[in-house]
Design a protein that fits this description.
single chain; mainly alpha; two-stranded antiparallel sheet; 3% strand; globular
């Protein structure tokens, strides 16, 4: 009986994830924040609790990586996290300043899904996963600063984690009611 329930929930979540998307205009930051947050919630329902990415962190990284959804990669490729495409036969968009290929997504929420998957499987994010496990199972409280510090390898910018922390403060105050 339990297997059937789990299979049904997995099917429902997969269907929801494939069809879920959001709209925003580049001058409406509120819509962008809400869209990324909602996609993150939907994606998080498809993974075990210990593999979920906090909505504030997902949203802050999307803001920083895509300039509030206004970057060329965001507008033309639905890539909100600067995720690189390593297979040139897969959909991609080429950087204007280098030969780097960036992944192209058909739906905006696919970018969020790929981002969550990257944090859960990428070798650069083992510290993040270890810290998240500590928080989920032992402290049972989210310490955003520690999780963000564990993302130091996400970008080459030496001030990346400090910028993320600043965006988290803005999100808490202006968009998420002080949580």
């Amino acid at each position: 009986m339990m297997k059937e329930i789990c299979a049904t929930l997995l099917t429902l979540c997969s269907t929801l994830l494939q069809s879920f998307d959001f709209e925003y205009s580049t001058d409406k930051q509120q819509l962008f924040v809400r869209g990324i947050a909602e996609c993150t919630i939907v994606v998080n329902t498809s993974v075990p609790p210990a593999k979920r990415v906090p909505v504030l962190i997902s949203t802050a990284q999307a803001i920083l990586e895509s300039n509030w959804g206004e970057s060329r990669f965001a507008r033309e490729a639905n890539n909100f996290y600067g995720i690189i495409q390593t297979d040139p036969t897969e959909p991609h968009i080429k950087s204007l300043n280098s030969d780097v290929l960036m992944k192209m997504y058909g739906r905006k929420c696919e970018s969020v899904y790929d981002y969550v998957n990257l944090l859960n499987t990428g070798s650069h994010f083992e510290k993040f996963r270890e810290e998240r496990i500590k928080q989920v199972f032992f402290t049972r409280q989210v310490d955003y600063d520690k999780l963000i510090d564990a993302l130091e390898g996400y970008a080459e910018d030496p001030f990346y984690t400090e910028k993320l922390k600043e965006i988290i403060l803005i999100l808490r105050e202006d968009y998420f009611g002080g949580i």
